[in-house]
Design goal:
single chain; about 220 residues; two-stranded antiparallel ribbon; 5 helices
């Protein structure tokens, strides 16, 4: 992996989040705002096209409304998740303020159980994110090879990358569940990555990490 080169290219759309309770400086907001100029300066991975880069409200319904507009717009003029730029992948970044390492999330759970109100004041408790999907135990899983991605990142110097099966029950999981559901219906791909605070892993290292994970994704189509 990483040596054969991409066949048709990949278009990646990226999201992060604004501030929320307890996190006034969300690193994913900076990552999303700065990733395009960072790649222009340090090199865009071969075969990769950066699509939209959007900072979402840290609010369940507030984020999802914007997300669906973006998801639909990203597929305009495409067929089965493919375009002239090849495969479409959505990469969502969120912060885990207590984390000491990066985590690639392999799944989301159909449960909203917010530990604190979101930025619009909503605090659901043990309710399904999508009621028509059934119970709060319903799981949706990414179709990207998360273990392979983590192994490749380790080879590139990021040795402490976790593969996680628990994206929490707050807005990160809420957005990821909707994104995975949309991706399954439309034949595209979705991935969620949790990052630590910049105080734990500095901004420069995190930007390099994002560049590398985008490069890895460019070889997966």
């Amino acid at each position: 992996m990483g040596s054969e080169g991409p066949s048709n290219g990949v278009t990646v759309h990226i999201t992060g989040f604004k501030k929320f309770h307890g996190v006034l400086d969300n690193p994913t907001e900076s990552i999303v705002k700065n990733i395009k100029p960072f790649l222009e300066q340090n090199g865009v991975p071969k075969g990769l096209t950066i699509g939209t880069c959007t900072v979402l409200e840290t609010a369940g319904n507030g984020a999802v409304g914007t997300l669906y507009k973006l998801l639909e717009a990203s597929l305009a003029g495409t067929k089965d998740g493919s375009s002239n730029c090849g495969q479409v992948i959505w990469v969502h970044f969120g912060v885990n303020s207590g984390a000491t390492r990066f985590a690639i999330e392999k799944q989301a759970i159909n449960e909203a159980n917010f530990r604190c109100p979101d930025e619009l004041g909503w605090k659901p408790q043990r309710v399904p994110i999508v009621p028509s999907d059934g119970s709060i135990s319903r799981i949706r899983t990414t179709n990207l090879p998360v273990k392979e991605i983590a192994r490749e990142l380790e080879k590139r110097g990021f040795a402490d990358v976790a593969v996680s099966d628990d994206a929490g029950r707050f807005v990160c999981n809420y957005v990821y569940y909707h994104s995975l559901r949309f991706a399954e219906k439309k034949g595209i791909k979705s991935l969620f990555v949790h990052v630590p605070l910049f105080a734990t892993i500095g901004e420069e290292t995190q930007m390099k990490f994002v560049k590398e994970i985008l490069d890895v994704l460019s070889f997966l189509n």
